[in-house]
Specification:
Number of strands: 14
Structural class: alpha/beta
Strand content: 15-25%
Keywords: Hydrolase, Signal
GO molecular function, one term: para-aminobenzoyl-glutamate hydrolase activity
Pfam families: M20_dimer, Peptidase_M20
Oligomer: single chain
CATH superfamily of the largest domain: Zn peptidases
CATH class of the largest domain: Alpha Beta
Protein name: Amidohydrolase
InterPro entries: Amidohydrolase, Aminobenzoyl-glu_utiliz_pB, Bact_exopeptidase_dim_dom, Peptidase_M20, Peptidase_M20/M20A_hydrolases, Peptidase_M20_dimer
CATH architecture of the largest domain: 3-Layer(aba) Sandwich
Length: 476
């Protein structure tokens, strides 16, 4: 608790006089049109993981126009990049990374209408708001660069273009490639229906596609000659569902059958099931995974089929650093929440009607959630970054209060002015956080000490992906 208390006090320390010569918030404000333009363009494209060529290219072009040196195609991923700007001077100063995502989700589309309106000619949508994530982080990185330049503060600002967060674990491959080894601190954010900078952790996870191979035959004329790959999938699913009774409360297991045959009268010789396993402890994910593989082998043995599997992605849990989180919380509170115009309020109220009994007051967008430590049941590849360098983040109300991620309501708001306002708020908070880190050596020391203590003296980074290459075709 001593480190956390120190962080609150440190957040109140005034920045040096030289650093006050330029207003970092003004640097964000003048980019409002850029934030909206970039966010809407990426929203329109709605590119899937590892296929975000135009979205990644747009962010790179914007950064190059501001004087950033861009390195594209890092970590063996064509749509991943690192953009860097280093202040000139005798001292190097801290290296601060801002993370940017830009991949969409498959199978969900929606216009910017406040009522259900799928878009017929689209096959993906920004139901997790990563168009806003990319645009808001872009704005913050440029604002920080301009502030460093005007004040002469020593330091390096980097924007990391991180593709395929949705099941592709782009940041894991970037972490594994050592791209964060010289980073002092990382800052990120995520779209949400609330404003919060709580010290939230997440579930570690691993996924794989289990592929069963059987023997095809006429299902009526010669059933004895067939060995159904679908039977293998169903047997595995049954055993895994029985296994759920014997796991602890933080375990999450879910699956979809991605291929189960084409016609009932043909015994399928191929079937595939896609599994996710999650837990707050990465070691427990590994232990659960051993049981999952055993179920797959048993299912194949019992149905006379064969099985193999391909690990698709895996993320470590988030490592919260309270020395940083409490300062970010203070920055967010100094800015306040999201205020709607009359038109935006009408839009929000229409969206809220679709929630039925789950609706909450749309005015909640203007509030900041209480600070605290909590376990989030989602997973993110930011987790791996957080074990490589001290990391801090926040959420802003880019969606109507009560909205669930991965919903049509999130797609609609992510392409609207409500979403753009949330991205601007995030950019302001991240910019203020970066300025604090550049100018507050005591905070840097406290955060690093907490980070080192949390990892332990013998910590060695290990991804949940093993040594596999990035699955560049996992969304094709």
């Amino acid at each position: 608790m001593k480190l956390a208390s120190t962080a609150i006090a440190l957040s109140l320390i005034a920045t040096p006089l030289a650093a006050q010569q330029a207003d970092p918030l003004a640097e964000v404000a003048v980019q409002g049109d850029r934030t909206a333009r970039v966010a809407k363009q990426i929203w329109d494209w709605a590119e899937l993981g590892y296929q975000e060529g135009r979205s990644s290219g747009l962010l790179q072009d914007e950064l190059e126009s501001e004087g950033f040196a861009v390195t594209a195609g890092v970590a063996g991923i064509p749509t991943a990049f690192v953009a860097e700007w280093r202040s000139k001077g005798d001292k190097d100063g801290p290296v601060i990374a801002i993370l940017a995502e830009y991949d969409a989700l498959p199978g969900i589309t929606q216009s910017t209408s406040a009522t259900r309106d799928p878009v017929a000619d689209k096959h993906a949508g920004h139901a997790c708001g990563h168009n806003l994530f990319g645009a808001g982080s872009l704005t913050a990185a440029i604002a920080v660069k301009r502030w460093l330049e005007k004040t002469g503060t020593p330091g390096t600002i980097r924007l990391y273009g991180t593709p395929a967060e949705e099941g592709g674990s782009g940041k894991v491959y970037m972490t594994r490639a050592g791209l964060f080894e010289d980073v002092d601190f990382a800052i990120n954010w995520h779209p949400d229906s609330i404003n919060s900078a709580a010290a939230e952790t997440s579930l570690a996870n691993r996924s794989a596609k289990f592929r069963f191979h059987g023997v095809s035959a006429h299902a009526a004329g010669a059933p004895e000659r067939g060995r159904s790959a679908l039977d293998g999938v169903e047997a595995m699913n049954m055993m895994v569902n029985l296994m759920r009774e014997h796991t602890d409360m933080n375990t999450r297991i879910h699956y979809v059958i991605t291929s189960g045959g084409s016609a009932p009268n043909v015994v399928p010789d191929f079937a595939e099931v896609f599994y996710y396993v999650r837990h707050s402890d990465a070691d427990e994910v590994r232990a659960l995974w051993t049981r999952l593989e055993a179920a797959a082998k048993g299912a194949a043995l019992g149905t006379g089929t064969e099985v193999d599997w391909e690990i698709i992605h895996g993320n470590n849990s988030l490592l919260p650093i309270e020395a940083l989180a409490k300062v970010m919380d203070a920055k967010l509170r100094s800015l306040g929440g999201i205020e709607y115009t009359a038109e935006e309020k009408a839009f929000a109220e229409q969206i809220a009607k679709s929630f039925g009994d789950r609706a909450v007051p749309v005015e909640n967008a203007a509030t900041i959630q209480p600070y605290g430590k909590s376990l989030g049941y989602g997973s993110t590849d930011v987790g791996d970054v957080s074990w490589a360098t001290p990391t801090v983040g926040l959420n802003t109300a880019t969606w109507v209060p009560g909205t669930s991620a991965h919903s049509w309501q999130a797609v609609a708001a992510s392409g609207s002015s409500i979403g753009f306002k949330g991205a601007q708020l995030a950019a302001k908070a991240m910019t203020l956080m970066a300025v604090e880190l550049y100018t507050n050596p005591e905070l840097r020391t406290a955060a690093r000490a907490e980070f080192d203590a949390a990892r332990g003296p013998n910590y060695r980074y290990e991804s949940l992906l093993g040594d596999r290459d990035p699955p560049l075709d996992y969304r094709k």
